[in-house]
Amino acid sequence: MNSDIINQVVVLCIIMLLGLYGRKKEYIKEQTIKSLTDILMNITLPCLILSSFNVEFSRDLWENVKLIFIYSLIIHIFLILISKLFFIKCDESKKKILRFVAVFSNFGFMGYPIVEGIYGKIGVFYASVFGIPFNIILLTYGVILFNKKDKHNFKIKDIVMQPGILFVLIGIFIFLFSIKLPDSINKTLNMVGAMTTPMSMMIVGASFAKTSVGSILKDFKLYYISFIRLLVVPFMIYLILKIIKADDYILKLCVILEAMPAAAMTTVFAELYNSDRIFSAKCVFVTTVLSIFTIPLVITLL
């Protein structure tokens, strides 16, 4: 089992390197990355999510859905509180980026492919539920962290209409009422959803082609946040879920999702709210590269 998991992570890393190669050779242009990201977030990922909900309703599954939702909520509230302690001595401009990285993992781009590789479609099913509190907190606390002026400017409609939440809600409706989609729709969802994994990893690789390695090697903060994001956070989540006696399967799934590198949205938020975009890109880059080694380590330890 461990060798299968490591092989899965290696495959994802190779796809990421292909994306890096494609960007270096200009086969993938800057505008292409943005277009592919839009396609991923608004078409292929929603299809993957919906296809994962095409399972027969059972009480056990529904109980797990409720538990994962609650655990995800607990995890992210805990990380918001504990992240204050990790970066007390950092200057204000960097602190909000570092806290954002500590709280939000890249479970959308990398978490879905990895749990699908380990657990199959049922892993995506549970990861989708895990993502509901994640997305709500991202679109509320994440904005507050970068721009306190907007802290009262949230609309429930804007949050619900996010693809990451909307399609999970549709999927839960399909699951609860055991709605059987036509075979042609199922095949379409499966085929388009299957594009998510290779596309997401190629986007991750292509995004880092222009990053300066020299400036990264000199910045201690990047190693520190990588240590927090990739090792400390998963370890703390493991302890919390052990203390509350979480089911072993759900515990492992949550820890794996929290062992992912910094969320790609870190750079998007930094750009949107005129923060340090270059530093945020470095955080995403370094945590992603180091996760090639830490994700197999965390999964093997589990």
Q: What does this protein structure show overall?
A:
- The radius of gyration is 18 Å and the shape is globular.
- The chain has helices at residues 2-24, 30-52, 59-86, 92-103, 107-119, 121-138, 141-146, 156-160, 163-176, 183-193, 196-207, 213-217, 220-243, 248-258, 265-272, 277-301.
- It starts with a helix and ends with a helix.
- It is mostly helical.
Order of helices and strands: HHHHHHHHHHHHHHHH
What structural class is derived from the secondary structure elements?
Answer: mainly alpha
Radius of gyration over all CA atoms, rounded:
18 Å
Strand count: 0
Shape call: globular
Q: Which residues form runs of ≥5 with pLDDT under 50? A: none
Q: Termini distance?
A: 12 Å
Kindly state the percentage of residues in helix: over 70%
Mean pLDDT: 85
How would a crystallographer describe the biggest sheet? Answer: none
Number of helices: 16
Fraction in beta strands: under 5%
Oligomer: single chain
Q: Which short descriptors sum up this protein?
A:
302 residues, mainly alpha, 16 helices, 79% helix, 0% strand, globular
Q: What's the topology here?
A:
Elements: H1 2-24, H2 30-52, H3 59-86, H4 92-103, H5 107-119, H6 121-138, H7 141-146, H8 156-160, H9 163-176, H10 183-193, H11 196-207, H12 213-217, H13 220-243, H14 248-258, H15 265-272, H16 277-301
Question: Short description, anyone?
Answer:
By secondary structure, this protein is an all-alpha fold. It has 16 helices and no strands.
